[in-house]
Structure formats: C-alpha cells, structure tokens
Amino acid sequence: MALHSPRRHDLAGLPSHHTDPIRHPEDAPSAVRTKRAFTLLALTVLVPGSAQLVAGSRRLGRRALMVTLSVWAVAAVVLVVGLTNRGAVLTIFTHPVISFVLIVLLLALALGWAILFLNTLRLIRVPLLARRMRALLVVALVAAMVATSGSLAYAAYLIGVGRGAIGTIFSGGPAISPVDGRYNFMVMGGDAGADRVGRRPDSLSIISVDAATGRTALISIPRNLQNAQFSEGSPMRKIYPDGYNCGDECLINAINTEVNEKYRDLYPGVDDPGAQATLEAASGTLGITVQAYVVVDMAGFQQLIDAMGGIRIKAGGWVPISGASVDNSGTHEPPIGWIAPGEQKLDGFHALWYGRSREFASDYDRIARQQCIQQAMINQLNPATLLSKFQDIAGAGTKVVESNISADQLGSFVDLALKGKSQPTSRLVIGPPDFDASFPTYPDFDAIHAKVADVIKSATGSSSDSPSPKATGAGGPAGLGAPGPLPAALASSVSSGVPAGPYNDIGPDGVKVTAQRLDYLFRTGQNELLDEIMAGNGECTPL
C-alpha cells in the first residue's frame, strides 16, 4: 500500500491555501477580492514590484523591487547633490551625452513599469470581480499607468526635445574659464531683414556675470559706436590697427556683415566669423575679455514670444508700428498701428515692433525697450510656462538663437542665471544717460574702461556683501538679475499707477492723445508735436 503525505488543513477543515486570499482569491468573498484588486494596483503605483512579490512571481518581484529601490537611492543622491551643487544636477539635463543616457533610462523604466501594470492586471484576475467593479478597476489601472509610466515617457520626450534644441543652438566647442572671476557674454540682436545685406545687430549688450555668485552687470553698446577697438590678438586688428575708423560707415554694427563678406578667411574653423569679430570689438572697446556670444535673430524673435504666450510690460509712451520705408533716408509710410502706454500684454508681432521701432525715438530709447523685453521674458518664463509650452519654446529657440557657448557648460551657466535672478543688476550704457549724446561718434576709450571697471566692481560678490549698485542705464531692467532702482520719472508713475511718459494721455497742446490723433498728426506732418508727445517712450517696466 502506497504511503501518501498528509494534506495540510486549517482548523475549519479547508485546504490551507484557501486562507491566503492574496495569492488564491477564488474562494474569497467578493468584498475581499475587490479590496485585493485595488491593493495590488496601489502597490504597483507606490512600490513597483511589491505586488508581484506578494501575489505573483517572486523572482520578477524581487528584480523589480531592486530596480525601484535603486531608482529611489539615485533620486535621493541627486536631491542631496542638488541642494549643494545645483549646476551639477542641471548638467544631467543639458549635457548631450548624459541627457541621452537619461532618456534611455527613463524609457526603460517607463516600459518596465508598464509591464508591471499589465502583470498586475493578470494577477488581479478581473473575471473574479463583481461585474460593476471590473470596468472601474480597468479604468483605474489605465489611469495609473498613464500617470506613472506615461509621465516617465513624456519626461524622456521633453528631455529629447530640449537636447535637440541645445544641440542646434549651442556648440560642441571647448569650455570657457572665467576671467578675473567673471564670465562675459555678448548678446547681439541680429537683424537679417529682406531689405538688408547680411545681419546687422540692432542691439549689442555684454552680460558680465560673477562666476561665484551670479551677480550681473549689463553693459549696452549703441549700434552707432564709431572707432571700435579690436582686442589684442584679433585678426581684424591687423586690418584696423587704430580702430574701426573708415568713416560714418564703420559703425560697430557693420563689423558682422563686413567680416562675413570680406574676411572670413581670417577666422578658419569659426562658425560665425562676423559674430566672433564683433565680440573682439566689444572686448577691445570695453577693456574686458568677452568669452562667448549669443546671437538673437530679431526677424524670428516673435516666434519665441508667441511660444511663451506673450509677455506683459508697462509701456511708458506711445510707440509706432512703422509703415513701409519710402526711401533710404528713413522716411516711412504712416504707421500701421500704435502700442499705447500702460500695461500691455504683447504678442510676438507687437513685442518685436516695441523693441525695434525707430521713429520718434533715439537709439537709447530702443535699447531701453529691448532691455525691458529681455527682462520680461526672463521674469515670465516660469516653470509652469516652460513645462506647458516646452516643445513650442524649444522649437522657436532653434530658429531664433545661435551661440558658441559649449553645451557641456550650459548647466553651470543656467545655475549662475538662477543665482543672479534674485540679485540686483548693475547697468551701463555707452551713451546717454551715462555719456554725452555725441560720445559714440568720438568715444574716449579710457573713460569707457574706467566706467566699465566701476560697474563691474559694483556687481562683484553678492548683494549681501556689497552695497546695492546704482542703476546706470536708461530705461527698464534687463539681463540675468533682478531689476535695479528705476529712473525717477518711471518710479513715480509705477507708484501712482499712471502710465509713464511726459504727458500721459494729454498732449502738450492740451488735446487727448489717441491712436487716431497720432495718425492725424503724422498725416499732417506735425512732427515736432509728435516728438514732444512720444519723448521718453523708452521708459518701460516688465511685469
């Protein structure tokens, strides 16, 4: 007679496996099956792999749980490092190689998590649930899978979009080192309109950033500066040893086009010789070493503003949207519209015109308006806007911006920008109000060097260990840092809630100023009155 091992029973006389509803739900009450199903789903959401460990393949569960714990450990390390070295964490997302590895890992985790959800669905054994609970459970599982695995996949997609934009905009060249404790970047607003040969900068600024604290100085160079000095070692110094001095045509904004047309062979291996030569002219003129450049194509600028959803400013005076050019003297057809004083939300088209409009304004008014737009973009590009419109912003950026900044260093520079955003910005304009209006034609480079040294000194260290700098530029804030003190006229208008400008809504002739009134004055040639009404239209505050 064959011997059989006795079958284990519980105290009620049932086989022992019937007392384990997690692994054997078939004999469990309906309420227990429902609770089991949603418990396994919650375990897969909160601790991927734990559902398999308690109700399915323990081997799969242990492997998945090991991955889960490893990811948590890495995330904890990244969090700790981020608290002490934010630039290192930002580099994960901006470095071309590291970001690619991150994309692969995120996609692998997303796929693995999705597989665990499907395996959990099998373990739940949906047919054992009450009929009314089946659809609810499936909907909850799909929602959980989209929220978790789908989010990882979408994050990988966004990093991929950003990686592509970074690769298009920034170079793969060598890293740069700070000079005298600072990074100096040239930002050039390039105008490559259909009526122009080459690209001539309408705006030229140097952003000087303290390499330790991010404290920023913004130095604006007028486009009509003459006799610009090329730095020592510049190939163009051999062509113009005494400065860029061929007459009225040799303005600093003409260097870009001239070098790209005539002297490209002096810059072998350089992607944009014109921008590099302009950088060298800015270095020699200001008496500092400018290490890198960023070129913003003003013709495509409006795409970036539109991608952000517009920008908000407080305009200080009426700004015309010019009509077509009549001739080369600067005469235009009547304006096709006007940007009014006061609080405005500008789309790309109007923001572009607000920064570029020349009629009834000086170059320094334009510099101030451009600075105001730059600061508005920085202030309003918050994480919510960036995440919700990231693809559009990144796509527009590839059409608008080019730079010779190394992509490998981008993370550390973003970190510096974040540090500087909470600190005041020092400003200097190489022209009014910091110099006489004729100064750009007959520049005194010793005086320029002295003022540049002073403004950089005021932006050295952090705001807690040095006195707050006095704002020295015309118009509104700009650059990477927080706004400095406003001009008195603008500060009073902001505090009173009244639009800035010398006459507000009443003109010097006592008549209310409206767009229709301005159109009439333009058609009837009353330019002196228009000049008075629009005096100071460079006043602007980003909101």
From TrEMBL:
Entry-linked Pfam families: LytR_cpsA_psr (PF03816)
**Which regions span the lipid bilayer?**
64-85, 97-124, 136-159
Note the superkingdom of the native organism: Bacteria
The question of whether tRNA-binding is a record keyword is answered with: no
Q: Which InterPro entries match?
A: LytR/CpsA/Psr_CW_biosynth, LytR_CpsA_psr
Q: Where is the sequence biased in composition, kind Basic and acidic residues?
A: 17-27
Region spans: Disordered: 1-29, 459-484
Q: Where in the sequence does UniProt note compositional bias of the Gly residues kind?
A: 473-482
- Family listed: Belongs to the LytR/CpsA/Psr (LCP) family.
* Protein name (database record): Cell envelope-related transcriptional attenuator domain-containing protein
Recorded source organism is Sinomonas flava
